[in-house]
Amino acid sequence: MHGGLGVIKLSDAVQKLPRQVTCNVHGVGGNFLAIGRQRRRATAEEYGGKRFSKGAYFIGKAVWGKGYHELLDCMAAHTAIVRARREEERAARHKAREAALQKVPRGLEEAATEQGLDGPEAAALTTAAAAAVAAAAAASLTLGAAGAGAGGECHLDIIGSGEDLAAIKEDAASKQLDVSFYPGRDHADESIQEYQVFVNPSISDVVATTTAEALAMGKWVVVQDIPCNAFFKQFGNCLTYDDAAGFSAALLHALQNEPAPMDDETLNKLSWEAATERLLDVSAIKPEEWPSHRQQRYDAMIWRMYRSVTGFSVLRSALGISSATGDDKPLEDDEDSHSDCEQPPPTST
To answer: Per the record, which residues fall in region Disordered (predicted)?
Structure first.
């Protein structure tokens, strides 16, 4: 805010500041909103039964600082959780079939007795039938195991180019992750529009632009419940998590269910127009919020102290700063700096 009255922070991912207010005043390009509206109008039949033909992806410059450590760790934990659950399900099916097979000989013996068979004929019938049932059960168990693998539930496409790409690939391979790498491209690229789920475990973002863009395109977004993602929690297609189990649950839900189309009112919250309105609202100072004359004098004193250190031409030259750089004039020429910090409160209307 002007005149030292306060600071607007884009998110609480940055440090605390005096008289701060947090407001996401960032928006996405109109092309992302247009993609979201187009996906909303489309029917599942137009896309072969689903509005999205691909699963999950991550996009970002291939440098570790963009969240790749967190991404690979989350995917490793997710893969382990899914595989463990599938193995438990397979073991439960195997146990149930074993119990069923134990009942087969007795039932066959009773059937043979009812048919009047005894001796070798009854034994042969019992053996043949039991073998057939066992073979069918074994085949069913094998098919169940194949269907219970990690499959697409653990696959992720990673889109990005950068100096750490080779190291990132090596780490993914060491973790035995089911990931595919593709060169970087624009987030609005047609090939990316087909993805249903955007995963962004980064903890270094301030405004998380890619998350906003993915939401605008009508996708699920899976993000950690941290300050930089607080703005997105109002959207139904945003799934947050606190730990590895939460990440896995959120990703599975997003892969197994299509995101709900957003109406215009919700979608427009991601636009630059809405961001500008939020900026105007949060920067407007009510009469009761205007700092007192004493506070303004204090701010002016602090400002003059700062200028006394950085404002003199000799010191500026020693620090390699131009003697006059646009609005940041040397102190000798800055006659209005003191008065600018003291502003009369607005008149109530």
So the answer is: 323-349
Q: Return the DSSP state at 183.
A: -
Phi, psi of 336 (to 5 degrees): -95, 0
For the residues of 242-281, what is the DSSP string, one character each?
Answer: SSHHHHHHHHHHHHHSPPPPPPHHHHGGGBHHHHHHHHHH
pLDDT score for 222: 98
Mean pLDDT value across the chain: 79
Give bridge partners of residue 158 from the DSSP assignment. 58, 181
Cα–Cα dist 202/226, whole Å: 10
Distance between CA 314 and CA 316 in Å, rounded? 5
- From first CA to last CA, the distance across the chain in angstroms is 21
Do residues 230 and 12 touch, judged by C-beta distance below 8 A? Answer: yes
- Cβ-proximal residues to 319 (8 Å cutoff; 6+ apart), any chain: 310
Torsional class of 33: left (φ above 0), alpha (ψ -120 to 50), beta (otherwise): alpha
Structure tokens belonging to residue 196: 């249903």
Residues 86-123: pLDDT tens digits? 888 888 887 777 776 666 555 656 665 666 655 565 56
Strand locations in the chain (E)? 7-9, 20-22, 54-59, 156-159, 179-182, 195-200, 220-224, 238-241
Determine the 3-state secondary structure of 231 from DSSP.
helix
- Give residue for tokens 């194949």: 146
Residue 141 to residue 13: CA distance in whole angstroms: 50
- Which has the closest alpha carbon to 108: 135, 137, 128? 128
Beta bridge partners of 239: 222
pLDDT confidence of residue 143? 42
- What residues pair up with 58 in beta bridges, in sequence order? 158
**Which CB contacts under 8 angstroms, 24+ apart, belong to 11-16?**
11/206, 11/207, 11/227, 11/228, 11/230, 11/231, 12/227, 12/228, 12/230, 13/205, 13/206, 13/226, 13/227, 13/228, 14/206
Overall pTM > 0.85: no
